[in-house]
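Fold these two proteins, one after the other.
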Amino acid sequence: MSQQEFAIVTGAGSGIGRELTRLFLQDGATVLAVSLVAEELTALEAEMAGTGGTLITRTQDLSELDAAETLLAHCDAQGWTVDTLVNNAGFATFGDVVDTDLARIQTMLQLNVLTVAKLSAVFGARMKARGAGNILNVGSTAGMVPSPRFAAYGASKAFVNAFSYAFREELRPHGVNVTCLTPGPVQTKFASTAEVDTFEGKSMIKQWFATGHVATAADVAREGYDGMRGGKAQVLAGTGSGLAALVMHLLPASLIPRLVKNA
């Protein structure tokens, strides 16, 4: 891996994205860290000072429909050739679909689905033309196990998972690697953003977060990073990821929601 590597990490201000940014910098890469929250990027710059590599930050709302085109145009204007793309930005909604704000569901789907697909497409096309590159998409075990209260979020991650594996096969003959990281629950802002922690009913997920029975962002980022460097198609990481994969293979998808109704 060259010290001249240029990587984009979306959702870089916190959680898995923050830790992936750290790993790229430690390996001497130049990282364009993208986040919606400017304050997170300011804190990131202070935290990563002296880590190595070169950190560049960009505040951008990636849920906007033209976000991918805008980010590509920005990189072109700066003369940056992107070697590695990490599609990490995303969030969840938690609760019954009919009780969830439709605008929030729409924003989530635009970010988790459309932006991931479009960023993969526009930067993947450049990588294909050069005959080299890496794309790391952050999916989820939620995309393997259809769960009540996570219906829309799980569907969005099911898209990321399936898209990544198929996209990998399209780009593999052209020297471009695509890896899908599929973690279980991770100790990030996920629970608070999705409002899992304020849910008043019985919830296995809420209990996991409350008791700390979830993976750390640093551990999951390391597994994903190493898996991408190793050219893996999928990286199962964190609490329950192996079990989720087993359930997916052993049980029909139509039955699973009944078994995890208190997720």
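Now the second one:
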Amino acid sequence: MSLEKEVFLCAISNIESGTCNEDCKFCTQSVRYKADIQRYKLKNIEQILNEAKISRANGAVGFCLVTAGLGLTDKKMEFIAETAREIKKAKLGLRLIACNGTATVEQLRELKKAGIDNYNHNLETSRSFYPTICTTHTWDERYQTCLNVKEAGLKLVCGGIFGMGETQDDRISMLKEINSLDPMNVPLNFFHPNEALPIVKNTINIEDAFKLISLARKMIPNAHKIMIGGGREIMFGNRQYEVFDKGANAIILGDYLTTLGKSPKDDILELESLGYKIAKNFHLMSDEK
């Protein structure tokens, strides 16, 4: 936490939902598990632009365009690029993040040209534990995409999920690997159980979760933002703003991909009442990362 107690807010646009054929056991977007969620193909750009405007008005400084599926097809790449151009044209002052799965250097360069600033691709867990939660693609494919992001000149956002049955050694291994990629931002998610999923419950408690945030800040010291993402409300309850005392300095504002979050108004009112300053811009200490 900075001395100014500054907090960064980032919003998500789930622009394609529930259409993924992968078997990730933590994810309701997989068609294999038939979770009761909204499923749809690509939203229209006007709707996404409107969401971006609302997010910015609510205080978000980052806006993430998320699609379901293994990777960035050329068709999706063209759609994300067109969407990015429209949002940039609106001059909202948002930093644009794309989160569209595995991607080549060439595809990522096209997104950068269109105005995408960051690319989010999480390692999710350790290399050794990954086959336990997913068999349809490999951890190494995920790591390679992160390397591709760096080569393409985009800023990397890379994090993972805690509470899927992994050991503490797995968590430490994941954090080491994330640090090896030198990401700009690190989203930490906490598994949100769903009755349709093969993983039945979150295996960590609130005190473990706080310790993991502190550990992430210690092990990834150069990260500009440690962001608490999915599972914040269910993991931390009425202690959720204590995450900022443990080393986090960013949260997701509003809803997540397939689960509801707190209302932006409630988050902002509570943060301000606790003395936190809401960042107005996604400024970097160094733009060289």
